[in-house]
Design brief:
- It is a single chain.
- By secondary structure, the protein is of the alpha+beta class.
- The protein has three domains: 6-88; 96-180, no CATH class; 189-309, Cytidine Deaminase, domain 2 (3-Layer(aba) Sandwich).
- The protein is built from 14 helices and nine strands.
- The protein has helices at 6-14, 41-46, 66-75, 77-88, 96-107, 114-123, 132-142, 145-150, 153-157, 164-184, 194-205, 242-252, 272-286, 306-309, and strands at 17-23, 29-35, 50-52, 57-61, 212-218, 224-232, 256-262, 291-299, 302-305.
- The strands form two sheets. It has a five-stranded mixed beta sheet with strand order 6-5-7-8-9, with helices on both faces. A four-stranded antiparallel beta sheet has the order 1-2-4-3.
- α13 (272-286) links the parallel β7 and β8 (291-299).
- α1 (6-14) crosses α3 (66-75), α10 packs antiparallel against α11 (194-205) and α12 packs across α13 (272-286).
């Protein structure tokens, strides 16, 4: 078997590539190359290397890759010259990720605009690319950070530079925000935690593209028993049956209700159908000593409370 000579290793050193032989427990060995490998990624891949993103090295199974790599660099000296130019002439965003992480940790989230917070998330999933243009494009398309992470998977996947891992990361962040907001409303009586309740409802419903009708079932101390989706409809209509709402309240032993639904149109103004349905549920509950505290309509432009509007006594 041909072994690399000294000149092969010297050429790798000149290219600022570090070659190491790693022996594992069973006596088998493999090779890995580290250093500033990005300019040589095509050469390394053609030599049989596989990128290890965790350790940030290229790994090679079999004989030393020094010979094919050195042979390629000798045959195409412009590769080495171009790589050295690339190393010398750093892109404008070189070091941006480290600087942004440092600023976030030292100055806090308030020191960063929305697009930079989104960059921090994208850093975890998209390597070796300037993600600032992508972050700004996402915000321009969807309108806000909340709308970005709440966006439907197929819309996020339509962005070429947003890989599947990044889409999963954004959707997981949205699910996490919903769970955190939900935790905040389960600790105390809801009527005394109104701001936290509105935050939770906005997180859960403000960016939905179809109408969802929720019922919050409360006990005698106004502690949340359950938040259940009763119906899911179209973009502007959700059928709700008062009898089913009251039946479920009796099954759960609830003594009070808060109705919630969203308006995907962005306008939270109640419709005549909303008013009629609310009065029907209030009347049905009153006959069984089940109090309807409020009906809240959520949209991405705000919310309205039927009690604040005078529709519930």
């Amino acid at each position: 078997m041909t072994r690399p000579d000294k000149s092969d290793h010297q050429l790798l050193v000149e290219a600022k590539l570090s070659l190491d032989e790693i022996t594992v427990d069973d006596g088998e060995s493999f090779y890995r190359i580290s250093g500033d490998t990005h300019p040589y990624r095509t050469v390394l891949r053609d030599a049989g290397g596989r990128w290890n993103p965790k350790d940030k090295v290229w790994t090679f199974i079999g004989p030393s890759p020094a010979i094919p790599i050195a042979k390629r660099l000798r045959a195409e000296p412009e590769l080495l010259a171009d790589a050295q130019k690339e190393t010398t002439a750093k892109p404008h965003y070189f070091g941006h990720r480290a600087r942004l992480r440092t600023r976030f940790m030292e100055a806090g989230a308030d020191a960063l605009p929305d697009y930079e917070l989104l960059e921090l998330i994208l850093f975890q999933c998209i390597a070796r690319v300037d993600v600032k243009p992508l972050a700004k494009q996402l915000l321009a398309t969807f309108g806000s950070l909340g709308a970005v992470i709440a966006a439907e998977t197929n819309r996020l996947s339509a962005f070429d530079k947003l890989n599947p891992s990044a889409v999963v990361h954004l959707k997981a962040l949205y699910a996490l925000s919903q769970r955190v907001a939900h935790e905040e409303i389960t600790q105390n009586a809801l009527l005394g935690s109104w701001d936290k309740l509105i935050t939770y409802l906005k997180t859960a419903l403000a960016y939905e593209t179809r109408e969802h009708f929720h019922v919050l079932f409360l006990n005698a101390k106004n502690i949340l028993i359950a938040d259940e989706v009763q119906q899911t409809g179209t973009v502007n209509h959700t059928p709700v049956y008062p009898r089913e709402v009251i039946k479920r309240a009796l099954e759960l032993g609830a003594t009070a209700l808060i109705l919630v639904h969203n308006h995907p149109s962005g306008d939270p103004t109640p419709s005549p159908a909303d008013l009629t349905m609310t009065q029907e549920i209030a009347a049905a509950g009153e006959r069984l000593d089940i109090v309807l505290h409020d009906h809240i309509i959520i949209s991405n432009q705000g919310y309205v409370s039927f009690r604040d509007l005078g529709h519930l006594a």
